[in-house]
Amino acid sequence: MFPGDYIFLILIFLKPLLFIAIIVWLFLENRKKKFEIQRLEAKIDKILETLNRKE
């Protein structure tokens, strides 16, 4: 086998792993953003409640 063949085999084996890693990373990033959005929504709800009480 030539050295180029090893590089080709490594790429074949690493591509699916890279694809899976990207999917997992995107999933975790989405979860983080969901938690941040929930926190912001809670803060907005508190502000609206305080404004409604003052009226």
Q: Helix-strand pattern, N to C?
A: H
Number of helices: 1
> Helix/strand-derived class?
mainly alpha
Overall residue-averaged pLDDT value: 87
Helix content: over 70%
How many runs of DSSP E, i.e. beta strands?
0
The CA-CA distance between the termini, in Å, is: 81 Å
Q: What would the principal axes of the Cα set say about the shape? A: rod-shaped
Unreliable segments of 5+ consecutive residues: none
Concise account of the structure shown:
The protein is mostly helical and 55 residues long.
Topology:
Blueprint: H1 3-54
Structural commentary:
With 55 residues, this protein is mainly α. Helix content is 95%, strand content 0%. The protein has one helix spanning 3-54.
Salient structural properties:
55 residues; single chain; 1 helix
